[in-house]
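Friendly challenge for the regulars: who can give me the C-alpha cells for this chain first? No prize, just bragging rights.
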Amino acid sequence: MTSPLPLQGVRVIDLGRTFAAPFATQMLADLGAEVIKLERKDRGDEMRYYGPPFIKDEEGEDLPISSYFIGANRHKKSIEVDLTKAGGRQLVRDLARVGDIFVENFKVGDLARHGLDYAAIREINPDIIYCSVTGFGQTGPYAPRPGTDSVFQAMSGMMSITGEPDQPPTKIGLIISDLITGLYASNAIQAALRAREMVGAGGQYIDMSLLDVAVATMSHRAIDYLMSGEIPQPLGTSASGSAPAQTYSCRNGRINIQASAEPKFEAFCKIIDRTDLLDDPRFATRAIRFANKDALEIEIETSLKNWALGDLYEALVAGDIICAPIYTVDQTFRDPQIVSRDLVRTVTDADGNRLPMIVNPIRMSETPVREPAAPPTLGQHADEILRGILGYDEAQIASLRAEGAI
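First reply, four minutes later:
Bragging rights claimed.
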C-alpha cells in the first residue's frame, strides 16, 4: 500500500518566478501538494532561459531548460496565462477560489494593479494562505526596489565575512538568499496550514523578504556584533574561536581539519608526528591557539606538505578527527557516501528530454516525499487545469484563446 504524502490534497496556485518562490512551491510539491504553475504566455518562467548550460535536443541545439529551472520546478503543472487580459486575470481568480495556497513574487504593487493582491484574493477565498516573496518585503523605503541574490548577500553582511582576510569581499557560490528564503517560505506556509486546520485561524498573508532572510542567515556572526560591538571579519576557511579548524594544503590537494577541542588536538598532533606542538605555550588551549592561529597554520602546513591527501584523510578518519577533502563537484558525485544516498536521478519530461536532478534530501519513514519527476513543459497541463480542475467548457476555453489570455 502506498503511503499518503504529507501534503496530499493541498492545492498551490504558483505565480512564482525566478528562483526563491518556485523553490518554496517545489518543496510543497515534493511533500505531495498539487502545484499549478502559472507562466507568462509564450515565454514562461524566465528561469527556463537562465543559462548556459541548457539541456540540448537530439541535434545538439539548446532548449529552454536551464539548471535553474530544473532545480526549482519538479512535480508542477504548467499553464500559460496573460495577466494583461481580463480572461487571464479571471482564470487566476477562479484557481484561487479552489486553491489553498497562493504564492507570488511580483514587485510590490504589481498584482494589486491586476486585482490579484491579497485583499482581492481574500474576497474570493477567505481561507487562502497568500505568500508574497520579494526582495525587500512589503514595507520600508526599499520595498519597491528589485533585487537579486548578490544584492542581499552584499547588504546583509554575508560578503563582508566571506573569503580570505586580506582579499576583497566574496560572494558565496550559490544563490543562497533565494534558497534559504524558499525554505523559510515553505516552512511558514505549512505553519499557516497547520494554524488554519488545527486552531481555526483561517487564511492569512505571509510577507517574505530576501533581505530579511539574508540578515537572519547571518545568525551567530551577526549576534557576535550585537553582543560585542566588534565588526565580524572574514575568516577564510577557519572557524570563529577554534584552531586548528580550517583548510590546509598537503602534497596533492587540500583538506579541511577540525581538531580544536583539547583531546582532538592531542590526537591530531600525534597523527602528524608533531607532539612538540602540545608543549608550545602558543598553542596551549583552544582560545590561545585561535589567537595564534597564523603561527599554528604555518606549523601544520609544514608538517602536511609531504602527506598524500588520501593517506592523510584515512589517518585522520581512523583517529576520529573531523575532516574532509576539498572536492570539486565531479569528485562530490563520485564519493561513495554520496553515491550510496542516491541523491542524483535522471528523469524524462513530456517532450522526452532527459534531465539530471538532485532529489529532495528529506527522509521520512512513514510519509516519504515524492520520487522526483520532471518539471513541466510550458503549458503542458492546460487542458487538465481548464477542464479537469476548473470545469471550463469548450466555449469558455475558445474565448480565452481568442482573447490571447491563454
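The mean pLDDT is 95. Residues 245-326 form a domain with the formyl-coa transferase, domain 3 fold (CATH 3.30.1540.10). Your move, everyone else.
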